[in-house]
Amino acid sequence: MSLTYSLGDLTIHRVIEQETSFVPALEMLPGLTGEVLAENRAWMREAKALDQQDVLLLCFQSYVVKTPHHTILIDSCIGNDKPRPQRPKWNMKTDDTYLRALNAAGFSVDDIDFVMCTHLHVDHVGWNTRLENGRWVPTFPKAHYIFAKQEFDHWSAQNAKAEIPPFADSVLPVVEAGRHELVGNDHAIGDHVRILPTPGHTPGHVAFTMGRGKDDAVFSGDLMHSPLQTHYPELSIKFDVDPDAAAKTRRSFLERYCDSDTLCCTAHFPSPSVGKIRRKGNGFVCVAV
Ligand SMILES: [Zn+2]
């Protein structure tokens, strides 16, 4: 399986931390009925999106994009040494899978110019920081970390009420180190990197579009989690903060890119995780390239 894609003057690398069973489909997607699951079970299993117990299989990964000017890491996964007692597979991890995958793609932590987070959930900020002598420090010491201001403000307010561990250990230390930049939705980096607001999963969730003057690739973050949601865009997951907004965002995103040449790079679809959006019935499908 190739983990690298070349498009226009971009090179895109997948850096995988985990690909594993997550939450039962019927629990994760509250609007999913047993009947619809049964109709889709065969292709979902074939696609390794569903296991034998009807638990959704998800990939947890970063994308590293090389533009002619910069090396950009999108979403920093789960991280090590972080107390996540609700999720045994994420709790106090010490494995070197992620950093080895980064190296295998040809990068060291010093090579990353920008870290961009689609949103500030636990599995998208983890490697923002690493533990050094008992302190959280930026994992990518030379990077500017780009956070959407609306998203940052939301979690900042939540964290003020009661500590949100991934915000406290994986976002605030970056701010304290002075490596962050809070940006509006009109932010761009050169003529290759743009922001597409995609609210719903979280209030300030954004997608990133890349390519010189046109969207060669789009990084969709958590606006969808399972390929089942391309067929049924109205199915929101139980972690969507605003399920109705998430459903609307999903359909308009899929409509925007269907029948285009843009490579859709999802955060969590099972490998290969990327594809082109095509229409299928009243919904869509993400077709591997
Ligand atoms: Zn996620």
From TrEMBL:
Instruction: Please report a single Pfam family linked to this protein.
Output: Lactamase_B
Which keywords does this chain's UniProt record carry?
Hydrolase, Metal-binding, Zinc
Q: SUPFAM superfamilies from the entry? A: Metallo-hydrolase/oxidoreductase (SSF56281)
Matching entries from Gene3D superfamilies are given as: Ribonuclease Z/Hydroxyacylglutathione hydrolase-like (3.60.15.10)
> CDD domains, alphabetically?
metallo-hydrolase-like_MBL-fold (cd16277)
Tell whether Zinc is among the UniProt keywords: yes
Boundaries of each Metallo-beta-lactamase domain copy?
62-268
The UniProt family comment states: Belongs to the metallo-beta-lactamase superfamily.
What is this protein's name? MBL fold metallo-hydrolase
Species source reads: Bradyrhizobium vignae
